[in-house]
Amino acid sequence: MERTYNFSAGPAMLPREVLEQARDELLNWHDCGLSVMEMTHRGKDFSAIIAQAEADLRELLGVPANYKVLFLQGGATMQFAQIPLNLLAGRSADYLVTGAWSKKAFKEAQKVGSARLVATTEASNFTRLPAASELEFDPDAAYLHVCSNETVHGVEIHDLSAFRTSATIVADMSSHILSRPVDIGQYGLIYGGAQKNIGPAGLTLVIVREDLLGRAPTNLPTMLDYAVQAEHGSMLNTPPTYSIYVAGLVFQWLKKQGGLAAMEQTNIAKAKLLYQAIDNSGLYHNPVEPACRSRMNVPFTLNKPGLEELFVAEAKKQNIVSIKGHKMVGGMRASIYNAMPPQGVQALVDFMQDFERRHG
Ligand SMILES: *Cc1c(COP(=O)(O)O)cnc(C)c1O
């Protein structure tokens, strides 16, 4: 069977080998007579699965010992509220708004407590990152929140040091976590919904420095309290067991690919191929400043009106799907996460060039 190249922003493609292994183990995991879906989360089998997943993730990301890894639910969207609820402790937090997702995070934080805008690039339609001269940090902020890869607008922070502040940095990495090595020590907390670059939907990953735990007010609902979740090994209630299992298979797959340094090289090559095809064409256009273009989410428009529906329909015939852009920016968007093979990007580029020859 030929696999479809799925350019969806999320839920996104998973590595074929991971799906095959999940299929092979579906009815009877490691001869225990049960599917992972049927296992008690308190038993030794699932305990081994979650412990292995955490160990592999720690190894891949180089997570220091003084950070907790939490496997939560509610998506990155829940974190927009859970972060200020846990970390504000009556103070104010700084928010950098560089696209649709950080804008949402900022709005949600304002519902919970005091949140302050450091800078926004909305007036430039989120096609760039702010310059140092535009940044106004609050030296007493409880934390600075950034979205290091804006999934809708295709803007990625490649160098965090441009946003140096004395405040603890909290980052929404939903759509580029595990795509490149990252120095976890630069952050107080990072988080992401799993369905982009980690595994199936239903799982939310939070990695948090231990000294940030225990700041939550005593009336915070138990489920939302990071310290309680950490104390219970992410099993205060029933965790999303199957999503954790598949995420664990993805972590093992990443290790087999050579880890995050090797993934980064592949991701650089994939993104370069696609951006060059866009920049060298007369039909396609990406509006983002080259220095902050995302390696994971590549939005592009067609310069000639009335071609979008045809583009999507013809792409589908080439097994290229979910290429339509977010309604906020229009046009097309190709999400090329870890699981998108280089051949998939090549197939898209071949199709785009052929489409331009016929319709451009
Ligand atoms: C998808 C996405 C979210 C929302 O994730 P959910 O898990 O659906 O809540 C938040 N931030 C970024 C950067 C995303 O890409």
UniProtKB/TrEMBL annotation:
PROSITE patterns: AA_TRANSFER_CLASS_5. It catalyses: 4-(phosphooxy)-L-threonine + 2-oxoglutarate = (R)-3-hydroxy-2-oxo-4-phosphooxybutanoate + L-glutamate; O-phospho-L-serine + 2-oxoglutarate = 3-phosphooxypyruvate + L-glutamate. Gene3D superfamilies: Aspartate Aminotransferase, domain 1 (3.90.1150.10), Type I PLP-dependent aspartate aminotransferase-like (Major domain) (3.40.640.10). GO terms for biological process: L-serine biosynthetic process; pyridoxine biosynthetic process. The keyword Iron does not apply. Its EC number is 2.6.1.52. Its cofactor is pyridoxal 5'-phosphate. One of its GO terms (molecular function) is O-phospho-L-serine:2-oxoglutarate aminotransferase activity. Residues 4-348 form the Aminotransferase class V domain. It is an enzyme of class 2 (transferase). Pyridoxal 5'-phosphate binds at A76, T77, W101, T151, D172, Q195, N237, T238. NCBIfam families: PRK05355.1 (NF003764), serC_1 (TIGR01364). L-glutamate binds at R42. The gene is serC. InterPro entries: Aminotrans_V_dom, Aminotrans_V_PyrdxlP_BS, Pser_aminoTfrase, PyrdxlP-dep_Trfase, PyrdxlP-dep_Trfase_major, PyrdxlP-dep_Trfase_small. This is Phosphoserine aminotransferase. SUPFAM superfamilies: PLP-dependent transferases. It is found in: Cytoplasm. Keywords: Amino-acid biosynthesis, Aminotransferase, Cytoplasm, Pyridoxal phosphate, Pyridoxine biosynthesis, Serine biosynthesis, Transferase. One of its GO terms (cellular component) is cytoplasm. Catalyzes the reversible conversion of 3-phosphohydroxypyruvate to phosphoserine and of 3-hydroxy-2-oxo-4-phosphonooxybutanoate to phosphohydroxythreonine. Its main location: cytoplasm. Homodimer.
